[in-house]
Write a structure and sequence with these properties.
This protein has a single domain (2-310), classed as Rhopdopsin 7-helix transmembrane proteins (Up-down Bundle), CATH 1.20.1070.10. 76% of the residues lie in helices and 4% in strands. It is built from ten helices and three strands, in the order βααβαααβααααα. It has a three-stranded mixed sheet with strand order 2-1-3. It starts with 10 loop residues before the first strand and ends with a helix.
Length: 311
């Protein structure tokens, strides 16, 4: 971290979305509403999974960890969107920028591993129901979470080491709501082709591999459910529609960020809102509105609260 003091640039200017005042007020309201929904919805899932013994199962253990990750990812990014829209442009210190981009990639890496773990959990539950609890034992579940954090840290630090050794002495304007590796590299006062290729290849490769692994696992589940339901493919789609929706919404912006060389800034900013504000609220929405166990757990919680109020 000593290299931080060697940089001439001490802060970056994050440029807000160029639009009318009415649209900015609308976006501020929507982002604030989504952020509150992300926090409250995921806190509800965490509370239910921790305190309701009926939800002490591998799937809900992984879901609780996903909720924790979603809250962290939104808390790092969405408030920056809101303050950026309010203040037009926003200054962020070099140290804060480096910290933000590291946490984004650490948490992003953890979420990818958790999505793979949840897909594996569904594969096991559907394809090997009799061996489910033996395969998805507590040790395996904890191993998935630890692997996620180790993967996230290695993924972020391997890119951070390239960034921190670059000299920053010229422009400091980032046409974005947040700091990210590819955009920071373009501001370096040196040829950033090699670091940019390494960073893009790192994030792009990890994103694409995870995405294809998830698609393959869901196709395997769909074929299995289809065969067991006598060719009724609609039942198979209903079984996995929520998972597939979350995966596509999470990975589509990531693919565009790291595979498309230079997406338009306006498209990038809109996709940023989808990835960090809308997707994290889908997990509590999907798993509370469409999940029977969660609905029953909410009813039990409501009865307990009602009983304690009248006793």
């Amino acid at each position: 971290m000593d290299r931080l003091n060697d940089s001439v640039v001490t802060e970056f200017l994050l440029l807000a979305l160029s639009c009318s005042r009415e649209k900015k007020l609308f976006l501020i309201f929507i982002c604030s509403f989504l952020y509150i929904g992300v926090i409250l919805g995921n806190l509800l899932i965490l509370f239910l999974v921790i305190f309701d013994s009926h939800l002490h199962s591998p799937m809900y253990f992984l879901l609780a960890n996903l909720s924790l990750i979603d809250m962290g990812l939104s808390s790092i990014t969405v408030p920056k969107i809101i303050t950026g829209l309010i203040n037009e442009d926003q200054l962020i210190s070099f140290q804060s920028c480096m910290t933000q981009l590291c946490f984004i990639h650490i948490i992003g890496g953890v979420e990818m591993v958790l999505l793979i773990a949840m897909a594996f959990d569904r594969c096991t539950a559907i394809c090997k129901p009799l061996h489910y609890l033996k395969i998805m034992n507590p040790k395996i579940c904890v191993s998935f979470v630890i692997t996620g954090w180790v993967t996230g840290v290695i993924h972020a630090m391997s890119q951070f080491l390239f960034i921190i050794n670059l000299p920053f002495c010229g422009p400091n304007k980032l046409d974005s709501f947040y700091c990210d590796f590819p955009k920071i590299i373009k501001l370096a006062c040196t040829n950033g082709d090699k670091p940019e290729f390494i960073v893009t290849a790192n994030s792009g490769f990890m994103t694409m591999v995870t995405f294809f692994l998830l698609i393959l696992s869901y196709l395997f589940i769909l074929v299995t459910v289809w065969k067991r339901s006598s060719g009724d493919l609609s039942k198979a789609f209903v079984t996995l529609s929520s998972h597939i929706t979350v995966v596509f919404l999470f990975f589509t912006p990531c693919v565009i960020f790291y595979v498309w060389p230079s997406p338009p800034p306006s498209l990038e900013k809109n996709l940023f809102v989808i990835d960090f504000a809308i997707t994290p609220i889908l997990n509590p929405a999907i798993y509370t509105l469409r999940n029977k166990d969660i609905k029953v757990a909410i009813k039990r919680l409501y009865k307990k609260i009602s009983y304690s109020r009248f006793c």
